[in-house]
Design a protein that fits this description.
alpha+beta; 53% helix; single chain
Length: 359
Amino acid sequence: MAVDVSNSFMEELNSILEIKTDYESKTYNYEWIEKFEEVIPYIDNIIRNPKRFIINEEEIVKVELAKKVTVESVIHLTQHTNLIQDYDKKKGEVKPSKILNINKDDSLDTYENRVIYTLIDNMLLFYGQHSAKILGDSYYIDSKEAKYEANTKIGTENVKVSLYYSSLDNNVTSNSGANIEARLKKIKMQLDIFTSSELFQTLKHLHTSPVRSPIKKTNVILKNPNFQKAVELWNYLQTYQGSDCAVTKKKKDIHDIGLVKGQFDQAFLLDYLGMVTLSQKKDEVSQRKAISLALARVIENILDLHDEVLEDKMRKVFKDEFKNAKNKVDKRNQKIINIFNDKLESANKAMEEACSLLD
């Protein structure tokens, strides 16, 4: 009989479902900030200890203008005896008219340093182009509305339902909360320190030409951890295609969507079965049959959504959930009993005190 009620309910069911969804979000891309923060300490190590190479400038000068006579100067003189002005055999002294003078100087104009110089320039340009575009607030708005109307007939009983469902979820994330502005200021301050460094200023005054990709794989660049991280950032900036701000908007109006409408139909049936237990005509549909119908529909819904669920697994889940639900009910009932007992005890004490006063 119970199965007939369920089938009759669904066979006579007429239902309409209308759903409206509206989603909008705005998110900012902070990935490049994290990349800058990650690599800046490595660039700082290079700036503080830059690679140098020695430049030897050789020139033939008058003896009196020579700053220092080196081994190279003596060897050069033996190879160019025409520069000897006089020779004292007794003292064994040679008096040259001119001599080779070598000026030794160190230079920051190395390929590796030019790479760092160009990288800092690229970072400044990238920062200027992107920093101002990510100071807005991120947000999302997720709105859903559903209107469900249905009617059915069970024997002589007419059943109707009208349901309106509304859901709104929105969130605004302020960049001040994420400390983005403070992080950007810190990056800019570090870049300013880099541009005022000896390495950067020296190469700037030399009008150093920027290095172009691809970067040469010198021993220093391949083996030095600081340069390895710098090259990572170089490649990141060269290939960056990220969007500073992404705006997403999705709006849908759906009518009579199959699976979802089916779930609403099932919910209508379960509501009906719940109301049956309040009926005065308990001889027609018993409470036990109503529960059986409700459980059957719940199981069907689960199988519709997850048809791979095994019977043993479902039995275990049901057993566990039944146990949890019963524990909650038992605790709630016990709490009520405890409150009742406390009130009763208080009333008894008050009665005893009143009786003692009368005595």
